[in-house]
Design goal:
With 194 residues, the protein is mainly α. 72% of the residues lie in helices and 0% in strands.
Length: 194
Amino acid sequence: MYRQIPEDISLDWLVREARDGNQQAADRLFDMFYRKMCHFFLRELHIGIETAEELVQDTFEKAWRKLSTLQDCLRFEAWLYRIARNVACDHGRKLKRRQPPTSIDQDFDLADSSPQVESQVLAEMHILEMWYAMPVKQRECLYLFYMDNMTMEEVAVRLHLGADTVKAYISKARVKLREGLYSSEEELSNVKSK
């Protein structure tokens, strides 16, 4: 049985302990870097949260197997990101190797997928434009609330803002996104009426 790990322990010590087989230290490292790795995959690959979580698991699995090769324990985070980049590249290669399903009878395959892909890419570009046009504080509040699943109070503490301010920023950001997504008056009135 390993001794309890204090809260204010150094990264160097945790990595050395994990390398020596201390499961509590390995768990603490996982907890410390899980969210960062998840955000890395979400940001770099533009994938769903479930896929990002799977890739984080793959990253840590590879890291634990190779931990004995890490020479400088203080470089653990950079080393972990390098493994994550390799996992991301592997994931991209797997996706490229997958062949889209082909129709058994080409005459019955009436759907043309290229306009759907094109419109999806255009929609994503439009959303990114709206995202970066938004004031930084609104963006931060929205991101922490939806992507990090923080409560409004937690966001307020993290950003040193009042809870009412955070609520207002999130509300304004949602309105801007809604108005941008449904740019025609008819679409906007349909959304507002729901």
